[in-house]
Write a structure and sequence with these properties.
Helix content: 40-55%
CATH class of the largest domain: Alpha Beta
Number of helices: 14
CATH superfamily of the largest domain: Aldehyde Dehydrogenase, Chain A, domain 1
Number of strands: 16
Structural class: alpha/beta
Strand content: 15-25%
Distance between the termini: 80 Å
Order of helices and strands: HHHHHEEEHEHEHEHEHEHEHEEHEHEEEE
CATH architecture of the largest domain: 3-Layer(aba) Sandwich
Strand order of the largest sheet: 10-9-11-8-7-12-13
Radius of gyration: 24 Å
Number of domains: 2
Length: 424
């Protein structure tokens, strides 16, 4: 007897049902005060600890499946959990519980000539959809950040971490429910059907914001197809410009760290701009080459060191996420600003200089989410900015830019108090 084919899931109906349940739960969550939300997250962290054994068993299934599928060592490492990493996930949830609650903050308060009392008050966004790959810790991190800011969340993790994500979600949901948070406030998509992602992206009016976490192809699809507002960045093409007035030792130290500390993160430098009048360009280049970085440069950069390979036109617009770096020699600050305006992805760009006027002009004219003076671009991180955990980096021009933490998961409303005023 042949088995019947599995019935195709109605993704639109599935997402609509989950979204409506999430929005209903969010209204309950929005009524919870700071202490209640913090206690709920501590309860969720404790549940992660209680169910650690089950989570590790589920993760072992994902690792075995990943090895069978031929996932790279780097992918498997991102996927793998052990006791220490699980403790870190639970500790991160507890750390979010300890963050200040942004909800209810009065952003501004004025009295209108009419006598009306006007306030702008920070409130949750509503229902947030998170679409992510590989790292099962995102299940806990995203859920914790959304709940802390009073939002419900609909999670859709990657197929490579499906068992781990379900086990982590089950523990989180149990802990949150014990503290009075409706289970529907944190939901995990029950299918890996790619069409469910499309249904999330089309759920305008049901899902208030989408946050993609993953590789370029995922983020590109989300940005191209979404009918829901998206908070994301596509590329991290970060520049460091060594100005003519830069300190020699500082320039080499910053450039080396900006590229080689961790080459695979979005804040890693991908293009080095050397001012033609900077006298120690060879020292900066040599430090990078000696550290094992492949350099690809224009003709003037190649003249600095014969080990530099020729750059192609595509190199200036490439996020390598590897020990590869493009290098150009530029004719002063104007040329550096022009290069960055033409090739930056608006993520993070830095200048190294001892000239205050040059630094201030760079800060004013470079239109990126993060602009730095005399610091490594590797500091482009919510934790380093004192924001606690972050849900991602945003490079758009609306709502939030740079590291997005709790404040970026809120919006505001106007609260108007009168005493009987009518408008003439």
């Amino acid at each position: 007897m042949s088995s019947q084919p599995e019935a195709r899931i109605d993704s639109e109906a599935l997402v609509a049902g989950l979204a409506r349940a999430g929005r209903k739960a969010q209204r309950v969550l929005a009524r919870m005060d700071d202490a209640a939300k913090a206690a709920a997250l501590r309860s969720a962290a404790a549940a992660l600890g209680r169910h650690g054994g089950q989570i590790l068993v589920a993760n072992a299934k994902d690792i075995a499946a990943g090895e069978a599928r031929g996932l790279s060592k780097a992918m498997l490492d991102r996927l793998r959990l052990d006791g220490k990493r699980l403790e870190g996930i639970a500790a991160a949830v507890e750390a979010v519980a300890a963050l200040p609650d942004p909800v209810g903050e009065i952003i501004s308060h004025t009295a209108a000539p009419s006598g009306l009392d006007l306030s702008r008050v920070r409130i949750p966004i509503g229902l947030i959809g998170i679409i992510y790959e590989s790292r099962p810790n995102v299940t806990a991190d995203a859920a914790a950040l959304c709940v802390r800011a009073g939002n419900a969340v609909l999670l859709r993790g990657g197929s490579e971490a499906v068992h781990s994500n379900h086990a982590i979600h089950a523990a989180l949901a149990e802990g949150l429910a014990e503290a009075g948070v409706p289970a529907e406030a944190v939901q995990l998509m029950p299918t890996q059907d790619r069409e469910a992602v499309g249904a999330m992206l089309r759920a305008a009016g049901l899902i208030d914001m989408i946050v993609p976490r993953g590789g370029k192809s995922l983020v590109e699809r989300v940005q191209n197809d979404a009918r829901v507002p998206v908070l994301a960045h596509l590329d991290g093409i970060c520049h460091t410009y060594i100005h003519s007035a830069a300190d020699r030792e500082m320039a080499a130290k910053i450039a080396l760290n900006a590229k080689m500390r961790r080459t695979g993160i979005c804040g890693a430098m991908e293009t080095l701009l050397l001012d033609v009048n900077f006298p120690a360009g060879h020292d900066v280049v040599a430090a990078l080459l000696d550290a094992g970085c492949e350099l690809r440069g224009d003709a003037r950069a190649q003249a600095i060191d014969p080990r530099i390979m020729p750059a192609s036109a595509n190199d200036w617009d490439t996020e390598y996420l590897d020990a590869v770096l493009s290098v150009a020699v530029v004719d002063g600050l104007d040329a550096a600003l022009e290069h960055i305006a033409s090739h930056s992805s608006a993520h993070t760009d830095a200048i190294v200089t001892g000239d205050v006027a040059a630094a201030e002009r760079f800060l004013a004219e470079v239109d990126s989410a993060i602009v730095m003076v005399n610091a490594s671009t590797q500091f482009a991180d919510g934790g380093e900015f004192g924001l606690g955990a972050e849900i991602g980096i945003a490079t758009g021009r609306l709502h939030a830019r740079g590291p997005v933490a709790l404040e970026g998961l809120t919006t505001y409303k106007w609260v108007v108090r009168g005493s009987g005023q009518t408008r003439p």
